[in-house]
Amino acid sequence: MTSPTSMGALHGLKVVDASRVLAGPFAAQILGDHGADVLKVEAPEGDECRGFGPPFVNGSSAYFNAVNRNKRSLVLDLGKPEDRERLFAMLQSADVLIENFKLSTLKSWNIPDAGWFSRFFPRLVHCRITGFGDYGPYGGLPGYDAAVQAMTGLLSINGEAGGEPVRMGVPVVDLTTGMNAAMAALLGLQARSRTGRGQMADISLYDSAVSVAHPFLTNFLHSGKVPAPTGNQHANIVPYNVYRTRTKPLFVAVANDRLFAKLCKQLDVSHLPQDERFSTNRARVVNRESLEVELGKAFLGVDGEEIGPLLLADGVPAAPILDIQSVAESEHARVREMVVRREDYVGPGNPIKLSDTPATIRRPPPELGSFSASANESVFL
């Protein structure tokens, strides 16, 4: 990360983060990292993911800290009319609202529907994050990452071939939804620059999960064949798998015939690309099992630690399987600033690297209610 004094691309943008747990806070942090002034509105008990530990750092979980830097925390009990009025007062000058309130909660506040925010605050870009949206057969149901993975087919295609479905270890649905919400905020602001009007962005975990079921969804739509788990293999590309060597196993992904020929040359099996069963990717997919036997034998005869760098240098995607510790301590992660250390804050870096207005860490994750202001005082900087 660059100097904390640098102005980001979103400097001057005012964001109210009234969301909880992961997708919404992650979206707000993306905006905050790039310069937005983000005010996190929390209930008196705080965002529940403050307790998602161990480990804990300065009273909050590492989980919470990873998605709530560059924010200030204001405690409001939105069950009280006077605190709701404070929220609404903030929205008069805010540019973006990110929330994941239940529709029933809004109705208990005498808000008839989610579109009310855009009608009442016409310049506000309102990012509404829900599990399944507010309409449709599942409309209004609560959404949880693993449950949505299950209901969108993602679990069904993850795991070993012939084995049981396995949850994706990374909360990919929440994180993808957070990225979509941040993108939606920027799209809404761009539209506002032309029209002068804000709008509501309807972002659901369900929609986000279905959108990343690639290529399995599109394969089914065009073939009618229901996909099943394939382990480390790829439905449309061969070879694409983990291979055992004399030393470390390697993940190898070969996306075209030219790279396949290079791989075979390094493995000293240059005859394989001449075999009509393996000469094209289409043929290799059809004859996958036969080819895997041949490649399995060839890889067992080489040193993975030696051939891995040689394959990469030759343009063939090949990589050792590293654990999280190895990644966190790697020189490349350090140089790319993907693990950041600033004073007493340690966390994941920002992957969006702008040349003129880079992301910065200006504030550590806030203590609950660390920001306070009188009812008549402006809360934005």
Automatic annotation (TrEMBL):
GO MF, one annotated term: transferase activity
Keyword ATP-binding set for record: no
Source organism, top-level taxon: Bacteria
Residue ranges, compositional bias (Polar residues): 371-381
EC identifiers of the protein: 2.8.3.-
Renumbered residue ranges of the record's region Disordered: 349-381
Keywords: Transferase
InterPro entries assigned to the protein according to its UniProt record, in alphabetical order: CoA-transferase_III_domain (IPR050483), CoA-Trfase_fam_III (IPR003673), CoA-Trfase_III_dom3_sf (IPR044855), CoA-Trfase_III_dom_1_sf (IPR023606)
Protein name: CoA transferase
Organism expressing this protein natively: Variovorax humicola
Lineage of producing organism: Bacteria, Pseudomonadati, Pseudomonadota, Betaproteobacteria, Burkholderiales
